[in-house]
Design a protein that fits this description.
two-stranded antiparallel ribbon; two-stranded antiparallel sheet; 12 helices
Length: about 325
C-alpha cells in the first residue's frame, strides 16, 4: 500500500497526469524496481556465466523495462511534436523538462532520455515508500501523536506546499521515525578508484574497495541525541527559547533541524557533493501521504505482534504482508 501511494504521487511529478493514471505503466515502474533488486541480489552470489540467464528469468526477459521504454518513446514523440502549449501541470514534470531542455537531438535520443529518467526513478523510488512504511508503523505504536499531529494540521488554513513543508511536529516525528528505522545501517558509500590511505594511521583502500560510515552509530550518539534509543517525536522541534536544555544543563544540539537537512549527524541523505538532490521531493511525498491519512482515517496494526521488517545485508526492508486496519475519521 505504501509503495502504491508514493509511486502514484511520484509518477505524477515524473511523467504527468496521463501516464500516472495508467495502471499498467505505474505497475511496470514498480516491477522494474523489484526486478533490479532481485537480480542484483542473485548476481552477487551467482557465477558470472549464469548472469544473463538469471537476469532473464528473474525479470521475465526484462518485460517491465521493455514496456516502460515503449510507452515513454511514444510520450517523448508526443511532447516533441506537440503544436499546442503544454498544461501548467505538464510544464513542471520531470519528463517534460528533460525533453524540452534536450536541444542536442543527436545526443539526446529517446533511448538516452529514457535511460536518464528511469535511472532517476530507480534512485528516487525506494526511499520514500520504505520511510513512509516505518513512519506509519510508529504512528500505530504511538497513537498519542496522532491527535497532536491532527491539531497541527487543522491549525492550517490550507494545505498547500508551504503549509505541508512547515509543520514542525510532523517534520520532527518523521525525522525521528527515520532515525530509529534507517533504511540502511551504513551510509556515504564511496568506492576507491585508486589506492587511498586514510590519514592518521587509518586503513588503506585498494581500487574497487568500498568505504562507508555507520549511520546507525552516528544517529545513536548520546552526545548529539540524548537518550538515543528512546523515541521522541518532538526531539527536533525548536523550543521558544531556542536550543532546549536537558536536566543537568546538556544541550540538544540538533533541536530545530529539519528532516531534509543533510549533515554528518544525520547521514541518511548522503553527505557533501553527493548528497541526495531529491530529498525535498521525497520528504514532501511522505508528508502529503501522512497528512491525508491522518485527516481522513484512523488506523492501527491488525496484529501488533506481527513482524514488520526483515534485514537484507545492512538494509532494513518492510514486510509486504504487514496489514493495517483503517476506519473513517469521524472527527473530520
Amino acid at each position: 500500500m505504501m509503495r502504491d501511494l508514493t509511486s502514484g504521487m511520484m509518477a505524477l511529478y515524473f511523467f504527468g497526469e496521463e501516464l500516472s493514471a495508467e495502471p499498467e505503466f505505474v505497475g511496470a515502474l514498480q516491477r522494474y524496481y523489484q526486478d533490479v533488486i532481485s537480480s542484483s541480489g542473485a548476481l552477487q552470489v551467482a557465477p558470472k556465466f549464469l548472469a544473463p540467464l538469471l537476469h532473464s528469468f528473474l525479470s521475465k526477459n526484462g518485460r517491465a523495462l521493455h514496456f516502460i521504454f515503449t510507452r515513454l518513446k511514444r510520450e517523448i514523440r508526443r511532447i516533441r511534436e506537440a503544436t499546442e502549449k503544454p498544461s501548467e501541470l505538464e510544464k513542471v514534470t520531470l519528463l517534460y523538462n528533460l525533453v524540452a531542455s534536450s536541444v542536442d537531438l543527436e545526443y539526446w535520443t529517446p533511448d538516452r532520455l529514457i535511460q536518464a529518467v528511469v535511472g532517476i526513478w530507480f534512485a528516487a523510488s525506494h526511499q520514500p515508500w520504505i520511510n513512509l512504511h516505518f513512519v506509519i508503523l510508529e504512528l500505530c505504536r504511538r497513537p498519542e501523536y496522532k491527535d497532536l499531529l491532527r491539531q497541527e494540521i487543522d491549525s492550517q488554513d490550507s494545505m498547500d506546499y508551504q503549509a505541508v513543508s512547515n509543520l514542525p511536529i510532523l517534520d520532527s516525528f518523521i525525522k525521528e521515525s527515520v532515525r530509529l528505522n534507517p533504511l540502511d545501517l551504513m551510509s556515504i558509500r564511496r568506492k576507491a578508484l585508486k589506492p587511498f590511505q586514510f590519514p592518521d594511521g587509518g586503513p588503506q583502500l585498494q581500487p574497487g574497495q568500498i568505504a562507508c560510515v555507520s549511520a546507525y552509530d552516528i544517529m545513536h550518539d548520546p552526545a548529539k541525541y540524548p537518550n538515543p534509543h528512546d523515541f521522541n517525536g518532538l526531539r527536533f522541534v525548536e523550543s521558544s527559547n531556542g536550543k532546549e536544555k536537558k536536566p543537568g544543563g546538556a544541550e540538544e544540539p540538533l533541536r530545530g533541524t529539519k528532516f531534509v537537512d543533510g549533515s554528518k549527524d544525520f547521514p541518511i541523505w548522503g553527505f557533501g557533493s553527493k548528497i541526495c538532490p531529491g530529498r525535498w521531493h521525497g520528504a514532501l511525498v511522505i508528508k502529503m501521504v501522512v497528512v491525508e491519512l491522518l485527516k481522513r482515517y484512523d488506523f492501527h496494526l491488525e496484529d501488533e505482534n506481527a513482524k514488520t521488517h526483515f534485514w537484507w545485508e545492512t538494509f532494513q526492508m518492510p514486510y509486504e504482508s504487514t496489514r493495517l486496519v483503517f476506519s473513517r475519521n469521524t472527527a473530520t
